[in-house]
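Structure (tokenized):
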């Protein structure tokens, strides 16, 4: 049996005295696209912060491709690709400098042909020498995505990555991610509000509500609901409301 790309066991976390997440257990297999859903303030971003090591756990454990985030953080993070919020990117660096720093952190001699091909497809290459703080929201979003894909990570973590992308770029990114998951065995954890992405792309989906993973849908369940008028959207609304 293969080791999951991401394993969370009994995860609890928060800020100061405030508890945000409680008792979350989740396993995502290689090659899977997992959509994390939930209303604003439910803890999605906090969960992602835990997975990428930005927030210390109060309880539980996280393993990325079999490497414990607490006991082997270097090994875990070298197998991780994280697309931060566009406004968190360093404004005084150029796009190329951001990419090269990520590559250096993963001990890579170069960025790789496939990554630069994606940059070209996304029409990002004209902005490589531009400073980040001069870029539009959509262009910074593309940079955040490219940074997440440096070094062919086994776990890709994205937070609302399609926000700000034009339709053509969104279509290119969906196809690229699906192809990457199929060929490399990487998995994708995507926090999103976009129902169409869940219905057409996700292999599994989970609902985070009040800091707990309240409901999950398999790929078969998602496809079955998609065939109904507003099926998945209605199921999600009922799960949140009920």
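Design, position by position:
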């Amino acid at each position: 049996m293969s080791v999951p790309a991401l394993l969370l066991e009994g995860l609890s976390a928060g800020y100061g005295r405030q508890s945000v997440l409680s008792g979350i257990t989740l396993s995502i297999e290689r090659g899977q696209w997992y959509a994390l859903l939930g209303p604003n303030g439910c803890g999605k971003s906090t969960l992602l912060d835990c997975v990428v090591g930005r927030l210390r756990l109060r309880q539980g454990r996280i393993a990325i491709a079999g490497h414990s985030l607490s006991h082997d953080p270097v090994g875990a993070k070298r197998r991780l690709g994280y697309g931060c919020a566009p406004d968190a990117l360093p404004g005084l660096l150029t796009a190329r400098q951001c990419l090269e720093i990520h590559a250096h952190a993963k001990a890579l001699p170069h960025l790789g042909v496939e990554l630069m091909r994606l940059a070209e497809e996304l029409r990002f290459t004209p902005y490589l020498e531009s400073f980040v703080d001069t870029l539009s929201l959509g262009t910074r979003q593309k940079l955040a995505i490219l940074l997440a894909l440096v070094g062919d990570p086994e776990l890709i973590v994205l937070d609302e990555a399609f926000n700000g992308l034009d339709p053509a770029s969104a279509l290119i990114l969906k196809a690229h991610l699906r192809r990457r998951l199929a060929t490399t065995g990487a998995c994708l954890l995507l926090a999103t509000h976009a129902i169409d992405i869940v219905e057409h792309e996700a292999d599994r989906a989970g609902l985070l509500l009040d800091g707990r993973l309240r409901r999950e849908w398999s790929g078969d369940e998602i496809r079955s609901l998609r065939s109904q008028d507003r099926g998945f959207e209605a199921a999600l609304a009922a799960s949140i409301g009920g």
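Reviewer-requested clarification: The chain is about 35% helix and 25% strand. The two ends are 36 Å apart (CA to CA).
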